Amino acid sequence: MATKILIPTPLRPFTEKLDAVEVDGQTVGELLQGLTTRYGGLKQHLYNGDGRLRSFVNVYVNDEDIRYLQKEATPLKSGDVVSIIPSVAGGVGVEAPAAPALSADEVRRYSRHLILPEVGMEGQKKLKAAKVLCIGAGGLGSPAAMYLAAAGVGTIGLVDFDVVDLSNLQRQLLHGTPDVGRSKLASATDRIRSLNPNVRVVAHEVALSSSNALELFRPYDVILDGTDNFPTRYLVNDACVLLGKPNAYGSIFRFEGQASVFATKGGPCYRCLYPEPPPPGLVPSCAEAGVLGVLPGIIGTIQATEAIKLILGNGEPLIGRFLIYDALRMRFRELKLRRDPDCPVCGDHPTLHALIDYEQFCGVPSGVTSPVGSATSESGDSSASATDMTPRELKAALDRGDKLVIVDVREPQEWQIARIDGAVLIPLGEVPQRYGEIDKNQLVVCQCRSGVRSAKAASFLRSVGFERVVNLTGGILRWSDEVDPTQPKY
């Protein structure tokens, strides 16, 4: 019996870019074995070295998580649809102080809210009294913060310490062209105040960490997770659970987005969905994989909507529900989530009572931080080792006429933007099928945009017998900085 498997965007490079595959199998386990037999490059993504399904990959039959069915022994029947969901982060009111009065100006400003029976004067006063903390002033934080401000949320906190880059403007609408090179928090504060001067903006220009998260979160009613990396996602989740603060979660990747509400009383948390993070580099960042500019606008607006519903205590927040949005097909799907009674942070007998080292937990080298305090970076650079080569070293080797082959593992559309002369294009998803095209007798230099995907390609080539393989640290971005500035950066 053939069953349809829906393939998420991060894994499509390994299924010949197919978004759905039909495979024969009587159980989920047989289905996944058949899938990984047909597409060998998927195996390391779905299974660990012991042959067990990775804990950061969730599998659903229709809208049910197989962990709460019969796991991989879950039987399949005609018409079932299996979804692979890898990690890429009645009303439930939040406590707020006494509702302040609205001025005449605010009554006019919020008049379209005031005539809604679900909001009214009392609801608008709740919004004015509320405090929401946005982690990140980037793609997700931009629409979320602007709509929260427009809605009249009285205090909006922002955590970020990055500066505005030209590449941000395709999606981060808090910032404009004149803000390039400026602090994101300064730019965001000005934009929010111009939108609604009644809103108080609190700028936290710090790297979010285990040492300051609880203190930062404590004054706020709702935490809105707009981060783009796993260490910070787990940090935000755990801090929210420990403090009892609801977490309006959102994440984006290429054309797909996810949203939910975690860490409410009796509801699941992020760890219930993803008990463990994927290994570093396994899931590419938006800087590596790209993102449709309007996508964070949609997901960030959903996050803002959930935060407002939580404050008002009205509607049905995304508690115990996981929303998936596909922009290419303009399709929403919803999956059920359950609190894991064995969850180490929100379970019946929690074992985690304090914040931990999340860089270590996620297997990320320490000392490299992102704009919101994670230990991942878009540069993908690290200290040199025997398996690394810097752009200057590669240039010297080329000038000497050394025998080597440069394998560019980016996608064809990236190849069209910039490339190193003489490189051979083999996209990362095709490496498991095409590595036979690479000469083992020469030094192989794997290269991508920033060094993340190429490190993964180099590791794979070593696993299949290549003895002389190095990774170009910093990728073509660093090549442009140090060797050939005529190559455009993206």
Describe the structure.
This protein has 18 helices and 18 strands. By secondary structure, it is α/β, with parallel strands linked by helices. A hairpin with a 2-residue loop joins β3 and β4. α6 packs parallel to α7 and α6 packs across α12. The chain is globular, with a radius of gyration of 24 Å. The two termini are 45 Å apart.
Characteristics:
490 residues, alpha/beta, Rossmann fold, 18 helices, Ubiquitin-like (UB roll), Oxidized Rhodanese, domain 1, five-stranded mixed β-sheet, eight-stranded mixed β-sheet, 3 domains, 30% helix
In the CATH scheme, the class of the largest domain would be Alpha Beta
Q: What is the fourth-level CATH superfamily of the largest domain?
A: NAD(P)-binding Rossmann-like Domain
The total strand number stands at 18
Largest sheet: 8 strands, mixed
Roughly how many Å is the radius of gyration? 24 Å
Please give the CATH architecture of the largest domain.
3-Layer(aba) Sandwich
Proportion of residues in extended strands: 15-25%
Number of domains: 3
Structure annotation, total helices: 18
Strand order of the largest sheet: 8-7-6-9-10-11-12-13
Distance between the termini: 45 Å
- Helix proportion: 25-40%
Which structural class fits the helix and strand makeup? alpha/beta
Shape: globular
Uncertain regions spanning at least 5 consecutive residues: 367-385
Q: Give me the CATH fold name of the largest domain.
A: Rossmann fold
Mean pLDDT: 90
